[in-house]
Amino acid sequence: MDVNTTTTNQPHAGAEAAATVPVAALESLAARLRPEGLSLAVLLPDGAVAWQDPTAPQFFQRYVVPQLRGITAQDSSDENAVTSVGHLPGITAAAFAHVNKRAVAAVVVVAGRAADFAPGEDVLRACTRLGIDATWLEQQARALPAHDGHSVQTYARLIAGAMRDQLRVAGLEQELDALSGQLSNTYEELSLIYQLSSGMKINRRASDFFRQACHDVMEVMGVRGMGVALRGDNEHQQEPVLYGPLSLPHGKVHRLADELMDVLRLRKSPLLVNHLAKDKTFAWLGEHARQLIAVPLQRQDQVLGCMFGLDKPSGEFDTVDSKLLNSIANESAIYLENAMLYDDVRGLMMGLLHAMISAVDAKDTYTCGHSERVALVSRRLAKEIRLGEHEVERIYMAGLLHDVGKIGVPEAVLKKTGKLTDEEFAEIKKHPEIGARILRDIKQIEDIIPGVLHHHERWDGRGYPMGLSGDSIPLMGRIICLADCFDAMSSSRTYRTALPLEHVLGEIRKCAGTQFDPRLAEAFLQIDPGEITMMLRDHQGQAKRLIELQQNLRGGN
C-alpha cells in the first residue's frame, strides 16, 4: 500500500517501515477516538514516532506523544495482544503491534489522561524535561475526560479490530485496482489485435498495413519509436521504416533492421535490451536510444521479417511488452503470409488471363496488344473519375478480357481487309456474348463480365448485343467502350492506318452523348494527351516486337 507515514513535524528516516498503514486509515481511526478524549499515535519498531494525530489537543501533542517515544516492538510483539503501557506519569496508554509480512512494522498506541492525573513529582519532572509549564498542562488536562487502564485497553482493542478491517478492505481495493488495470490493459491489447485483424485485407498494401499497425502499437505501448523490416526475398519487401518521434540518422534504420534479422533468424523469439549502451551487439544504437524490443514475424519456423520498438517512456521493457508485441507480430505474420499466397494466386490468374489474350492476339497480328492498351486506357479513365482502387483494377482486368470472345470468331472474318458483309458483321457482333459465356463459370472474375458483355453498347441505345442506353449500361461497359474506340482509332488496322491523335480526340468530343457517356468523354478529354501517348508508346513497342517474333516463327514454319 502506498502510505505516507511521517510525523507532524519532521519525517523520520525510518518512516518507510510503517508504510503499510495508510494515512487515511489512521486519520479515520483517530477521528473515532477524539470524542472520547483519546489520541492515536504510530511508532516505528525502534520506538520513533512515525505518525500522530495532527488535530489532537495540545495535551497530547506536547505532553503525551513525546513520552511515547521508546515504546518498541518488543513491548508489543503479538499482533493479537493489546498491552498496557506503564511508567508514563499522568497518562494511561495501551498498545498493539501492526504486523506486515510476519514482521512488526509499527506499534499503535491509544493514550488518554489518567484518572489520577495530578501535578506530582513525576509529572513535574516530565514537564521540566519537555519544557512545558506545569500550570498550563494542568489546565489542558482538566478539559479532557479521565480514563483508567481498562477503558483504554478496550478502546485499543476496538481500534485494533477496526484497523485490521480497514487494512483488509484497503488490500482488497488495491487488488481490485490492480485487476482493473490488468483488465484495462487486456482490453486495449484485444482491441488492438481486433483492429489489426479487421485491417487484414489480403489485397491491402503491406506498407499501409504495417504503418497502421506500428502507430496502433505505439499508442498502446507508449514507445517513442516503432518500426518494421521485411525479409529481402519477400515479394512484399519494403524499405525498413521507423515511425514515431524518435528518429535515427540516415542508414541507421537499415543497419538496425539487418542486425535484428540476423539475430532473430537464430533465436526466433522476442529480444529485449533495456541498456543499449552496454549491449555487445547493439551498443552503437545507445547514442540514439536507451531500450530496444524486437519480435520476429514468423510463420512455420520461417522468419518473414520483424517488428521493433525503441524507448519506453517509463520503466523497462518486460515480458508483458514482449507478449503483446509478439501477439501483434503473429497476427501480422498471418496477414503477410496470406498476402503472399494471394499474390501467388493472383499472379497465376493474371498469367492465365494474359495467355488467353495472347491466344486472341495470335489470330490477328494487326490487333496484337489491343486488349492490353484498352486495359491501360480504361484504368487511367477509371482513376480520372476517382473510382476506388479495387474498382480500378477490376476495370483493368475487364479491359484485358473484353475481346476474349473473338476466339470464337473465324479468322477469315477477323483478318478481312475489305468491308464486312452483313453475315460477317453478325459474326463479329457475337464476340461480347461469347466472351461472357467463356468467363461465366470463373467465379473469381464474374464481376467483370458486364464490362465484357456491354463494351459495344452505345449511349444512344444503338449498340449491341442488348441495345442498352444511357445509365442502364454498366459503368464498366461504358468505360471500356470509350477506351476500345480510342485504341481502334489511334492504332493501325487491316483496313486503314492509325488516325492522328488530334483527330481521335475530336471524334470522342463529337460522339459524346451519342456513342459515349458524355461525362466519361469529358473526363477523358481532361487527361493530358501526352500522358496517354507516352503510356501507349512503351506498350506499342513491346507489341511490335511480339508481332515480329510471331512473323519470324511463321516464316520459319
Strand content: 5-15%
The CATH topology assignment of the largest domain is Hypothetical protein af1432
CATH architecture of the largest domain: Orthogonal Bundle
Principal-axis shape equals: rod-shaped
Number of helices: 18
Instruction: Write down how many β-strands occur, each being a DSSP E stretch of 2 or more residues.
Output: 11
Span between termini: 94 Å
The unreliable regions are 1-18, 545-554
**Count of the domains:** 3
Give the topology.
Layout (H helix, E strand, L loop, with lengths): L22 H11 L4 E6 L5 E4 L5 H11 L14 E3 L5 E10 L2 E12 L6 H10 L3 H9 L3 E2 L1 H50 L7 H16 L3 E6 L10 E3 L8 H16 L3 E3 L18 E8 L2 E9 L8 H45 L6 H15 L4 H13 L9 H4 L7 H7 L2 H9 L9 H5 L21 H16 L10 H10 L7 H9 L2 H28 L1
Parallel strand pairs: 5-6
Antiparallel strand pairs: 1-2, 1-5, 3-4, 4-5, 7-8, 7-11, 9-10, 10-11
How would you briefly describe this protein structure?
The chain is α+β, with helices and mostly antiparallel strands. The chain contains 18 helices and eleven strands. Helix content is 51%, strand content 12%.
What does this structure look like?
- This protein is of the alpha+beta class and 557 residues long.
- The protein folds into 3 domains: 158 residues, 2-Layer Sandwich (Beta-Lactamase), CATH 3.30.450; 143 residues, GAF domain (Beta-Lactamase, 2-Layer Sandwich); 193 residues, Hypothetical protein af1432 (Orthogonal Bundle).
- It has 18 helices and 11 strands.
- The strands form 2 sheets. Strands 1, 2, 3, 4, 5 and 6 form a 6-stranded mixed beta sheet that branches. The chain has a 5-stranded antiparallel beta sheet with strand order 8-7-11-10-9, with helices on both faces.
- A hairpin with a 2-residue loop joins strand 10 and strand 11.
